[in-house]
Amino acid sequence: MRSGAPRPPVVSPAVAALDVLAKGTLLACLVLVLLDPAWGNLEGKAPTARALTYPLLAFAVPLWWQVRRPAGSYPWLADLLLTFAAFSDILGNRLDLYDRVAWFDDAMHVAVVTCISAALVLLTMTRTSSTLAVLERSVALGMTAALAWELFELVSFVTRSAELPSAYVDTLGDLLAGWIGTVLAALLVHHAWRHHLPPPDEISAEAQARLAR
């Protein structure tokens, strides 16, 4: 499902450094969670399943890059967005924000789906794509990811937790938050492509200048 060859955006070295730092911190936190779920406030919230699946999300782009070897620069921004999606959940639970702040869960569903949707759009579309095409792709992929997360929660721990009586209403609210995130991601990516990222000829010139150094 592509609209031409994907063209990763050019990003600053700070984005790459932040991506590497986030991955290292995530792995360290997951090890601590495996050793002591209480450290991450994840008792009864499938700590082992999270520790096994979050690295798959955080390292999906590097693995894809090694297999596909696409032309162009490495998509650091998309990689960071997917890593943030995994890291933010661990951090939010570690700080006990999900239980202490009433609106935090809804805000994180919007933010995480926004990050995942934006990353998938950046990886599979080009800056010449229309607003409607970007919106369609973002909603299709982002809502699929949101539904997959809700199914993961249901299978891994919700059916065995005290949350089960309210799970239906909570899931509908989470999916609505996810839909908002997909629309927000589409608007942000399309706006960035139009107004903030350099055009392809400038990207080529920058790449040539780097090779000449």
Structure in words:
The chain is mainly α and 213 residues long. The chain has two domains: 10-95, no CATH class; 102-213, no CATH class. It has helices at 13-35, 47-58, 60-68, 76-94, 97-100, 104-124, 131-156, 167-195, 200-212. Helix 1 runs parallel beside helix 4, helix 6 (104-124) crosses helix 7 (131-156) and helix 6 (104-124) packs across helix 8 (167-195). The longest helix has 29 residues, at 167-195. The protein is globular and about 50 Å long.
What is the chain-wise order of helices and strands? HHHHHHHHH
Strand content: under 5%
Q: How far from one another are the termini?
A: 37 Å
Oligomer: single chain
- Helical content stands at over 70%
Please give the largest β-sheet: none
Query: What value does the Rg take, in angstroms?
Result: 18 Å
Query: Helix count, per DSSP?
Result: 9
User: Low-confidence stretches at least 5 residues in length (pLDDT < 50)?
Assistant: 1-10, 201-213
The beta-strand count equals 0
Count of spatially separate domains: 2
User: SS-based structural class?
Assistant: mainly alpha
Q: What is the global morphology?
A: globular
**Average pLDDT figure:** 84
